[in-house]
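User: Hey, quick favor. My workstation is busy. Could you predict this chain's structure for me?
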Amino acid sequence: MKNNKIVLYVSLLVAGVLLGWLFTNALGNGSSSKEETDHDHDAVAEANQMWTCSMHPQIMQPEPGDCPICGMDLIPAESGSDGLPADQFKLTENAMALANIQTTIVGKGNVEGNTLKLSGKIAENEEENAVQVSYFSGRIERLNVSFTGEEVRKGQLLATIYSPELYAAQQELITAASLKESQPALYKAVRNKLKLWKLSENQINQIEASGKVKENFPVYATVSGTVTEKLVAQGDYVKQGQPLLKIADLTTVWANFDVYENQIDRFKKGQEVLITTNAYPNKEFKGVVDFIDPVLNTQTRTVTLRVVLSNKDAIFKPGMFVTATVEGVSGTKDEVLTIPASAILWTGERSVVYLKTNPNEPVFEMREVTLGNSVGNEYEVLEGLFVGNEIVTNGTFTVDAAAQLRGKKSMMNKDGEKVTTDHEGHLGTGNSSSGEESDPAHRNERLEVSAQFKQQLKTVFNAYINVKDALVKEDPTSTSASATALLNTLSKVDMKLLSDTKAHDYWMTLAGNIESSAASIAKTTDIKTQRNHFKQLSLHLINTVQLYGVNEKVYVEFCPMADNNNGAYWLSKEEKVINPYFGSAMLSCGEVKQVIE
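Assistant: No problem, here it is.
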């Protein structure tokens, strides 16, 4: 009996200890300190880790495995695209260095010496323009003006015309001359009829004295000047009063400048200005404000300011770009916010710059701005920026290209929609959740340029393709030679074919960037260095093809593993991916991102 009690007590003791331990452990787990829970970040991060494919970033899975599209191993996805807002993006330090991207802090300052600079164009002096007409009907037997631009003098023979009406009128004169004693009124009426056809007294007297009718009659210039337009050709039949030639007296010309409405009070008639032009960079020409348009252009919010210039030496040509420096301007605003012209990208009516949003990291965002007058090589900013903002002032096109190709807000894509492609690979934008895509024509704004300029750009593009093909073949010597050939074709592009100011300014910047990248490729035979510069060259060519077109379908292709897994783009004439960044090692790595029609 005693032994049974001992066994019972021991059993109860063991059971109590066991229950107490279980109770205490459960209570402790349920009430872990907040400090312990809050500091278990690694476990939380591991639990929330998503996995994606380097070739197909749209794939997101909660655990590692294979890509359901290409079968590649999934890699850890970056959390929240580096934690940046939707409109911002980040460039690598390598890309910043290769493209020589520079930034500037925006600040206020006085207009230097109370001086403003206006941009304008030379135009014909409309007060000195004339139209040479035919004063009688007939057929042009001979036209003595050979080409537009020819100089003519007052009294010079311009054309010879056969006129049945004039032939009959001469016969009337000869008949009336024999009756002038008996019928003086008839004689006088016939002479006046010929005078209305601009025949001189000497011509009429010669016909009367000779008694012979002229079959072909001369037309003489009534003014001196330059033929700006031929309106007829030899053999044409013309009517009375029909224009034959347009003649402009270019001994004086107009220089027309645009003045924004907030600056109108700074100008007045009679104000002295200094005119400069790129054609004569070391010369200045004086002029005075002759006219300020009383009507505001509601589209550009500007008025035209006109300066009359003496042009006896034919220095100024109509259509030439000129700059006016206006001294001693004053107005209600003594201080202006200005930014360098190199920071600005124009498209249609929009002006955009790129803001560096993080002072310690290369993070950028597009910002639309409203501009005022140009002040030297800078523009006044009326809206969109504040003192202390840091903006890109060199390499702006490179930053814009990066924004475009990442689907961020850019010069070409003001809504910042995600870049998508249809089943044929054509570029579009749309909402990734809905799957809807927009017409690519609504995304890209193509600048209007001449067919001749596009053909010259196509030669440059073909030279770029040769560089790309040489990199595919992993031939650095051929790559260097192809880059040198590209530089040669680039030098032959005629900027005079660009009459539009924006198209001209864009090409000036793009051509400089293309030249810099191509020259860097040409001067080395290290293929790794060549491929680094080829990445930048490709971005500039992508912008060029998007802005101007080359009359050919072009494919924008992308490899996410190039440039140390930062990704790189290139252009191709064919849809098949042939990778210039890896050559035979990964020849087919990449995919078509855009199709530029």
